[in-house]
Amino acid sequence: MDFTHTEDRRMLADTIARFVRENYAFEARAEIVQSDAPFSRDRWSDFAELGLIGAQFEEQDGGFGGAGFDIAVVFEELGKGLVVEPFLATLLAGRTLVAAGNAEQKALLEAVISGETLLAFAHAEPQGRYGLSDIALRAEVDGGGYVLTGDKSVVFNGGAADQIVVLGRTSGNGADTDGLSLFLVDAQTAGLTRRAYKTIDGVGAAECRFDAVKVPSSALIGPKDKAYPIVEEIAGLGLLALSSEALGAMETAKTITLDYLQTRKQFGRPIGAFQALQHRMAEMLIEIEQMRSAVINAASALTSDRRSREMALSAAKYLTGKVGRLVAEDCIQLHGGIGMTWEYSLPHYSKRIVMIDHILGDEDHHLARYIALSKEAA
Amino acid sequence: MDMSFSSDERVFQDEVRTFLREKLPARLSAAVKAGKRLKKADYEEWHSLLNERGWLAVTWPEEYGGTGWSAVQRHIFEEECCAAGAPRTVPFGVNMLGPVLLKFGSEEQKAHYLPRILDGTDWWCQGYSEPGAGSDLASLKTRAVRDGDHYVVDGQKTWTTLGQHANWIFCLVRTSTNGKPQEGISFLLIDMATPGIEVRPILTLDGEHEVNEVFFDSVRVPVGNLVGEENKGWTYAKYLLTHERTNIAGVGFSNTALAHLKTIARDQRNQGRPLDDDPYFAARMARVEIELEAMKTTNLRVLAAAARGDAPGPESSMLKIKGTIIRQEINDLTRRALGPRAMPFVSEALDQGYNEEPIGPEYAAPIAREYFNNRKLSIFGGSNEIQKNIISKAILGL
Hints:
The complex is a heterodimer of chains A (378) and B (398). In chain A, 50% of the residues lie in helices and 16% in strands. With 378 residues, chain A is α+β, with helices and mostly antiparallel strands. In chain A, strands 1-4-5-8 form a 4-stranded mixed β-sheet, covered by helices on one side. In chain A, strands 2-3-7-6 form a 4-stranded antiparallel β-sheet, with no helix packed on it. In chain A, strands 9-10 form a two-stranded antiparallel sheet. In chain A, strand 2 and strand 3 (145-156) form a beta hairpin. Chain A starts with 6 loop residues before the first helix and ends with a helix. With 398 residues, chain B is an alpha+beta fold. Chain B is 45% helix and 15% strand. Chain B contains 12 helices and 10 strands. Chain B has a 4-stranded mixed β-sheet with strand order 1-4-5-8. A 4-stranded antiparallel β-sheet of chain B has the order 2-3-7-6, with no helix packed on it. In chain B, strands 9-10 form a two-stranded antiparallel ribbon. In chain B, strand 2 (143-147) and strand 3 form a beta hairpin. The longest helix of chain B has 29 residues, at 279-307. Chains A and B meet through strand 6, strand 9, helix 10, helix 11 and helix 12 of A and strand 9, helix 9, helix 10, helix 11 and helix 12 of B.
């Protein structure tokens, strides 16, 4: 039994940490977040050069990683640095191409891994909340291709993406898992309008409207009507990535807060000398260690059977929501007023940690899903 | 045991409702209900309408232009104002300084400052906290040194809410370093136009400008601006804090916020059904509603005791803690209710008169911001940790 990462992964983590320290410190990040651009193209190129994008893909697909622990290691470090560049979108869309793309679609990956081509993954819809199969965007067969009509909401990197992976309905209704298909759509295609904005934690996203967008039949990714298992597996990678990112952000938020408790003096001593605050820090530490274990469980479960895998992923995301709220709120509270200010790093961690609860299913969604999965035959 | 309002109180409640229906501008209540930013002029407009009716100074006696209301009447008024979507009364002049002047100010000070609070001539802000003096307020260091007919003030205040609008600030300053820290503090009124004062904005985590730092560099303040006695300011400050904690339960805010949450939970869809049909979410809403219903009665119990003449005591600490936990929980549920829709943030959408198509439902725009911004509720006015210390000492005798 050994709970340490391989040397390669430790080196990768160190590389990211050093790069973040030197080039992505709080002020540098603030500049990116406050700019009109959704993220920094320069930093994205740097990250590509450092191999952070490649680490999300296996060797046969042009990368040099792609396993659960590769994803976990990279995203934990990204979380520590509050990196806003489109790693999640790239992971979800890129790995969809890996899982089901044709040769031409897979050929895109080289430019994705080098940071030149930008991808987005458009699945969620205004009415769908967190339901992966609650898809109303229609993809109707039309001559030799398809016509896409419908709305996608909060598409990360949707504004900047060159190519968008779109989940549409080719048959069935409502939340039927049958009848879903994936398409690769060039962002410049006529009829596609994108309204870009930032989320409250500074990440670029867009609302995408598909108004009779025509795509050729070669735009289909994988089998028609049978995309759901692919989408579930890809979303699972996202759950692992987000839980890892949240873990990294929580670790840093805890460190910042601990440092504050040791330096901030009131009533003639560091406020960390007060038992009421010590116990809250202790509780936070316990919960974050639980989080770390849940992330390890999820990363190692990626290669297990579907039910075990999805249960471990939902467990991690459930704890991300639960522990995340505790850490995000307590870190602000333990700081007092200073923890509420824009110029200070801590509240930006809190914002990210809480907003991660809103991506790919929150605490309640994954608790319900865990219960449903546990009742399925093993 | 009688939990109902008296017939007089019910008549009063009708009177308040009629006033709000007739006088509260629809533009203002719409902005408040939609979570829009309010401008200085919006607050001033509402103050002026309240003042015309004689209902601005709800804690002052009638002879000074106040309402002379009982605690129960004040409670009814607050609840109705919240329900109607009235802007909050900016408390610094009317609810904080006013009571201090009434109790400890000279006749000249009362005659000069109180009417100016009522007619809106003065917008007050609060100079209490300092970078080194937060929970440990008595350790404040801003100095006031006597020089002839003036005090010369040097130092820095922080978390000065809406100080950017203020023309006067009431300050706790250190006039002596002898004895316990509490024994060398004085309460000083300072004209913000005095040379040597600089106000700098502090942006909060949501990018808003609500609080400020105020710097004092050799600011000359006439000795006549001292309230009460020199070095007795701590007594006045504590008196003010108990008034600050009046209505701290925020029942009206929680009522309104819970009603809004329910509307949103009915409108949002989860697996094709209203979110409030989801047993997990329904349970979360029920829990907070149960807490709120119980706290309403706790609040009324404290009010009833106050109506019998007991001053608001350490019980207000209990109300502050429970009240803020409930409000924050409702904020938390509201951001949860939105699902992915909580994430988009377009700051301009919170300006009145913003005409672009909203991202998602119109009600979504301010929700995540409110959740994060209201983390302040358990921090300001004496953090919840400090309130627990008060309960431990003053009620439990530990």
